[in-house]
């Protein structure tokens, strides 16, 4: 009975590999996170700005020796992967320091933390399939989260455009009615006969 539960527990463990986070980044703010990695471990970080200003942030990843490995300036989305060359704490930061007014909402996923195992043993085919399924599920979940954020951004844009069209139409109606009344008044005055008494 126990050997049958082992693949199930392995599947649950690998499903939890991808973790989604949402943070609010205040103006002039910076948020940093870290992962402890061993040599040859792999990690992928995906982020998207969901709301705020021009929806752009600065992003960078540093290794344990504080060398910048990846950097992105004023990006709204990004996917960055790396393979650890040193053992230790890898830090990734999101920065809104160039913004003076707007707060940004950032959703990011840390997935694909694959710890390298050097035991030299043969991998069970069932375990390999479970890992592939877990990776597929994590990719689907990441894509769904990306689509939800993208839908929110597009809905906000559509609602904003709808409001602008409504107010512009109301303004045009008021101008049209005003011009009509002015023309009637002006033409009526133009054709009035002025009598000298």
Strand order of the largest sheet: 1-8-3-6
| Strand residue content | 25-35%
SSE string, helix = H, strand = E? HEEEEEEEEH
Structural category is: alpha+beta
| Unreliably modeled segments | 4-19, 116-120
The profile of the biggest β sheet is: 4 strands, antiparallel
Roughly how many Å is the radius of gyration? 29 Å
What's the number of helices?
A: 2
- Mean pLDDT over all positions: 82
Estimated helix fraction: 40-55%
Specify the overall morphology.
Answer: elongated
Question: What's the number of extended β-strand segments?
Answer: 8
Distance between the termini: 118 Å
Give structural notes.
With 197 residues, this protein is of the alpha+beta class. The chain has two helices and eight strands; from the N terminus they run H-E-E-E-E-E-E-E-E-H. The chain has helices at residues 2-15, 125-190; strands spanning 19-25, 30-37, 42-51, 57-62, 68-75, 77-83, 88-95, 104-114. A four-stranded antiparallel sheet has the order 1-8-3-6, covered by helices on one side. It starts with a helix and ends in a 7-residue tail after the last helix.
Topology:
Elements: H1 2-15, E1 19-25, E2 30-37, E3 42-51, E4 57-62, E5 68-75, E6 77-83, E7 88-95, E8 104-114, H2 125-190
Antiparallel strand pairs: 1-8, 2-7, 3-6, 3-8, 4-5, 4-7
Helix pairs in contact: 1-2
Short description:
By secondary structure, the chain is an alpha+beta fold. Helix content is 41%, strand content 33%.
